[in-house]
Write a structure and sequence with these properties.
- The protein is of the alpha+beta class.
- The chain has 4 helices and 9 strands, in the order E-E-E-E-E-E-E-E-H-E-H-H-H.
- The chain has helices spanning 95-105, 125-135, 153-162, 166-187; strands spanning 12-23, 26-29, 37-42, 45-50, 53-59, 66-71, 74-81, 84-92, 111-113.
- It starts with 11 loop residues before the first strand and ends with a helix.
Length: 188
């Protein structure tokens, strides 16, 4: 089991020019106009934030469930957990920022750089995404990994509590748990 202490202890962040997420078969450009996007990497989490609102949050410890591609100034991330998948892409302000982020992420998860000097033919982002999904089919449905004892759980919980959408999530979870309770009472 990997030790997370000492791995990139200094939080990193990169300004982001554009953010899109995959919904069904289409890419949706997301920008509510409230401010600039920033990609943060801190205490085992990769978070995309706009004006204090967390738009994406991916655990960096789930390396077998998360994969990424980098092409020029664009990062494509695909994360899978059990039967759900989350896909998003971001365009950095520069190619150097994308390369710096790629080097940081390679410590935690598989990142493939498809930017090759010998490649003169541009590869469409859709094709990059298809290649990402086809490269590791055996790892697409991994069993859930237990949380390691040295994982910074307290800091992660602190970040969750600071997320403005956390209260909504807690309410939804409470509703689902109440349904489970009603269902189990009906079985007795």
């Amino acid at each position: 089991m990997a030790s997370y202490e000492g791995l990139n202890p200094v939080p990193k962040s990169w300004p982001v020019q554009r953010y899109c997420r995959r919904e069904g078969s289409t890419w949706i450009n997301v920008d509510d106009g409230s401010g600039q996007f920033t990609l943060h990497a801190k205490t085992g989490q990769l978070m995309l934030i706009q004006s204090g609102t967390v738009l994406e949050s991916i655990p960096l410890t789930a390396h077998s469930q998360t994969h990424a591609l980098v092409k020029s100034d664009t990062l494509l991330v695909a994360a899978r957990y059990q039967s759900t998948a989350r896909k998003f892409k971001i365009r950095f302000m520069s190619v150097l920022a994308a390369q710096d982020c790629m080097k940081f992420l390679q410590v935690y998860l598989p990142v493939k750089d498809v930017t090759k000097p010998e490649d003169n033919v541009p590869t469409p982002v859709g094709l990059m995404f298809q290649r990402l999904l086809q490269t590791t089919p055996a790892e697409c449905i991994p069993s859930p990994n237990p949380i390691p004892t040295d994982f910074p759980l307290e800091e992660t919980l602190h970040m969750c509590i600071l997320d403005p959408s956390f209260c909504d999530l807690v309410s939804r979870v409470a509703g689902v748990l109440a349904q489970f309770n009603l269902a189990s009472e009906g079985m007795e």
